[in-house]
Amino acid sequence: MSSRSLDRPRTGSAWLLILGVVLLAALATGSARAETWLCPICQVERIEVPEGETSFTCPSCEISLTSEDLQIPVAYLSIRTRPTQVVWDLTPECGLFTDEGLMATPAEGNLWIPWSAVEYYIPRMRILRLTSGEEIAVPYARGPTCEDDDQPLILATVADSLGDWTREGRIETHPVEEYMKTIFIVARSPAALNEARDRFIEEVETGKHPRLPRTQPRTHRLAEPTPPAEVTGEPIEVVLQVRSSERGRILKVNRLKGSGRPEFDNAALMAAYRSAIYSGGEMGAGVPGSMIFRYTFGDTVGVEAEPADPPMWNEWIMPPLE
Ligand SMILES: [Zn+2]
């Protein structure tokens, strides 16, 4: 303490003034650091919590909730139309996402929603559905406090079905790393994931997100088959469905219409594998897609391609649990 402060006259009004300033400062700091959380039980009560605190008591439910009550142990995801499940552990947390919840932006101001209250969340469509059935406005999954480099990075395993009718099919799993903003769906259960998938498809098909529409898969090389024998009489037709990854790799070929002559079906199959596909897109993200290849063997040999119906979301394989 300095000698000058000792010399200062200590009148009652001066002390009151200091007290007032301190109180005002405390109030200002307090309000800047408070967060509002939705009670995950009643999903009505909004509780003021000091920033960084992850436990609170709901006055209506009269239940004290801890960090664990706000989290979900496992999240069911769709990553580029592929389903998967992960232990829900967000690293790093950022201004929009923590292990306990995510920020919503209703008209009344920012509101933290515990993950345990979320039925499903579709970041790219700004859709958040609570287990009460209510939906609440959310920002796009990025912002000034959630830039690319410090968004949660989700590590997951996805699966594809590989093969064709000439060989036994197999499931290939591969690890993926995706930022939260590119995840298609976060859901609390497999049933909620299925419901959210239908919702995602419906939203795209009704054109509610015109800035990032669906783009169809297309070929950039459509290989012609080599006829295995001369064809006399009626032309021979083979129709195949070809599924490719979001990078254009051919994953699976199904025979929709065989010719009854295996050598012609095989010639079509070899041509399909030699073709190259540009993947389709859902809301600006590359996704696996399917196309129909129609081969004809006659006086001339020909092949035509068109997107399958549906072009996307037509394989839904959960990776096997390790
Ligand atoms: Zn409550």
What is the string of helix and strand elements?
HHEEEEHEEEEEEEEEEHEEEHEEEEE
Name the overall outline: elongated
Note poorly predicted spans: 1-11, 25-31
The main pleated sheet reads as: 6 strands, antiparallel
User: Total number of helical segments?
Assistant: 5
| Spatial arrangement of strands, main beta sheet | 6-5-14-9-10-11
How many domains comprise the coordinates?
Answer: 2
Record field, number of beta strands: 22
Q: Round the mean pLDDT to the nearest integer and report it.
A: 89
Tell me the β content: 35-45%
Q: Radius of gyration from the CA trace?
A: 29 Å
N-end to C-end Cα span: 65 Å
Give the helix/strand class. Answer: alpha+beta
Instruction: Give the distinct bound molecules.
Output: zinc ion
Helix content: 10-25%
Describe the overall structure.
Helices cover 18% and strands 37% of the residues. It has 322 residues and is an alpha+beta fold. It has two domains: 13-212, no CATH class; 218-307, TolA/TonB C-terminal domain (2-Layer Sandwich). The strands form seven sheets. A six-stranded antiparallel beta sheet has the order 6-5-14-9-10-11, with helices on one face. Strands 13-12-17-16-21-22 form a six-stranded mixed beta sheet, with helices on one face. A two-stranded antiparallel sheet has the order 1-2. A hairpin with a 6-residue loop joins strand 7 and strand 8. The longest helix is centred in the N-terminal third of the chain and has 21 residues, at 12-32. The radius of gyration is 29 Å and the shape is elongated. Residues 1-11 and 25-31 have low confidence and may be disordered. Residues 39, 41-42, 45, 58, 60-61 line the site of zinc ion.
